[in-house]
Design goal:
Length: about 350
């Protein structure tokens, strides 16, 4: 089994590196003076996963029955035949059908349970690929490895909250994905906006230089980094106006719709990697930027959950009156979920459900 490629897709991790100074309004006014260019994900003429796609699952580690049911209800809501209350998970997923090749109908296939941590609690990306091959057959499938809160993955919380990639097997190319439960390791990074984001301390002040004038503008983000919100932090070597202290707006964390910060965070990340997998399964589908670090269907629209979003604010979402939980999509069995924006090729823009 030889790896073809490996690339990362995060949802909430880079929110930490784009939370602006409280003078955000002034920053946005300045940004309005800069010419906006439409976001376009280029199609690189590769194979996409279309038609009927089976999602095979490998549960690695301990998941409670309730946790598994939340994730299964989300997956079964993607192409549900039920008439769901709008906005719905299925309406969100239908955006993938606007990419080349038409609709994608997903069903849950095999489920493999590995509660004994057969290869340990600290895994490499190569081990994830090997584990994924145990989930089931590969024809028009996505094999998904889901790891529990005790499992440490190479790069988890540092550079990624989830991944998707592919490997060559004796039966052909296998598209696979991985998402981990971050609740014990980095909920502030991989389960935002259900957890308060980590505060990044400002850089030490430089020695006073009376001959140098520093304009009193708020911190800006380079145009080249503005959409790359799932990338490493902006290096401190980048000078003014891009190295101003980073602050988090004082916005309270949202209440998760399924009352589980870790699992609700996994849903957001699972949505991200699944959309990326079907629209760019073998690294030659739809993406923008370098092939080894692409912006894809959802990762190109990071930290956006509703209209009016800005860095540190997820946007306008729905609120459950009984619990105060936030969501933007209805699923089967009365479930509610918070799903990220997805790039719509017909609109050439990131679109949200609310």
């Amino acid at each position: 089994m030889a790896p073809i490629h490996h690339f990362t897709s995060l949802t909430s991790l880079l929110v930490l590196f784009i939370l602006f100074h409280p003078g955000l309004a002034r920053t946005r006014n300045l940004a309005a003076l800069v010419e906006e260019h439409p976001l376009v994900l280029k199609y690189h003429n590769g194979l996409l996963l279309k038609g009927n796609v089976t999602i095979n699952l490998l549960w690695y580690g301990e998941f409670s029955p309730n946790q598994r049911s939340i994730i299964l209800d989300f997956l079964n809501s993607l192409s549900s035949s039920e008439t769901l209350m709008e906005p719905s998970v299925s309406s969100w997923w239908k955006t993938t059908g606007r990419y080349m090749g038409g609709p994608v109908t997903v069903v849950v296939g095999n489920q493999v349970f590995d509660g004994e941590y057969s290869v340990g609690k600290s895994l490499t990306t190569d081990q994830l690929a090997i584990l994924s091959s145990k989930a089931g057959p590969i024809k028009n499938t996505v094999n998904v490895v889901l790891t529990s809160h005790e499992v440490v993955i190479d790069g988890f919380c540092m550079t990624k909250c989830g991944t998707h990639s592919s490997v060559i097997t004796e039966s052909g190319n296998l598209a696979y994905a991985w998402v981990g439960n971050s609740v014990r390791q980095c909920p502030e990074q991989c389960a935002w906006p259900f957890h308060k984001p980590m505060q990044i301390p400002p850089s030490p002040p430089e020695p006073f230089k009376p001959t140098i004038y520093t304009p009193p503008f708020p911190r800006l983000v380079p145009r080249s980094l503005e959409r790359t919100m799932h990338s490493p932090p902006i290096p401190q070597s980048v000078r003014w106006p891009f190295d101003r202290p980073i602050y988090s707006p004082k916005i309270a964390p949202l209440i998760p719709p399924n009352n589980d910060v870790g699992i609700d965070g996994m849903i957001m990340n699972l949505a991200t990697v699944l959309a990326g997998t079907v629209t760019n399964p073998f690294n030659n589908g739809y993406f923008e930027g370098p092939a080894n670090a692409p912006l894809e269907a959802v990762s190109a629209c990071p930290a956006i959950f509703g209209k009016g979003s800005y860095p540190g604010y997820p946007g306008q979402v729905l609120v459950d009156k009984s619990r105060g939980a936030s969501y933007n999509a209805h699923g089967i069995n009365g479930r509610k979920f918070l799903l990220p924006a997805m790039w719509d090729p017909q609109a050439s823009a990131c679109t949200t459900l609310t």
